[in-house]
Amino acid sequence: METAAAPRRDARARLLDATLAVVRGKGFAATSVDELCRAAGVTKGAFFHHFRSKEDLAVAAAGHFCAMADGLYDAPWTGLPTAAERVLGYVQLRRDIIGGAFEEFTCLLGTMVQETYATSDPIRAACEAGILGHAYRLLPDLTAALAATGRDDVTPETVALHIQAVLQGGFILAKATGDPATARATVDHLIRYLTFLLAPAGRP
């Protein structure tokens, strides 16, 4: 019984991994169920055993992507001594992993929501939850870092969303230009802005 269950779990995991790679590489609409099955090395019957539809798979893949992205919060930057350094360390890490094929560094959630926000509320909601949830995990450090600046003209929530907006916009620019360097340049500007914004009170 246990042996029979293992391949089913493995097929589901392979379909989720294939969705991350293929959809980030060519988009949601251009990706067919048949293509995902081929990429995962599973049958169409296995697909429909685990997922009712391509939309159902996309919602599950959003959660799968978020679980993978959460690993960024286990990276060395989390051990930096100050809140401002941790925020900047996180953004620097996001900059450092931009490169190679688009499916290796772009965001599945951003890719899917651009295509489906008006046509699939389940996918839109899953992408919203993932993007905002990931952004807001920086709130404790942003709150502490902004408190140390003595300024009250911005909120941690809006800064967290601004970080995500620059990252997502950078991915779009990279795809539009065919060059990941354009995304890295936008994040460089973000780092300069955050360095200025989070400078401790009394420091120029």
Please give a structural write-up.
The protein is mainly α and 204 residues long. It is elongated, with a radius of gyration of 19 Å. The chain contains 11 helices and no strands. Helix 1 crosses helix 4 and helix 5 runs antiparallel to helix 11 (180-197). The longest helix has 25 residues, at 2-26.
* Termini Cα gap: 67 Å
Mean pLDDT: 92
> Assembly state here?
single chain
Please provide the ordered H/E string of secondary-structure elements. HHHHHHHHHHH
Describe the biggest sheet? Answer: none
Number of helices: 11
Kindly list the characteristics that best describe this protein.
single chain, about 200 residues, mainly alpha, elongated
Task: Kindly summarize this structure in a few lines.
With 204 residues, the chain is mostly helical. It has helices spanning 2-26, 33-40, 44-50, 54-69, 83-96, 102-105, 108-116, 121-136, 139-149, 156-177, 180-197.
Q: What order do the helices and strands come in, and which of them pair?
A:
Blueprint lengths: L1 H25 L6 H8 L3 H7 L3 H16 L13 H14 L5 H4 L2 H9 L4 H16 L2 H11 L6 H22 L2 H18 L7
Helix pairs in contact: 1-2, 1-3, 1-4, 4-8, 5-9, 5-11, 7-8, 8-10, 9-10, 10-11
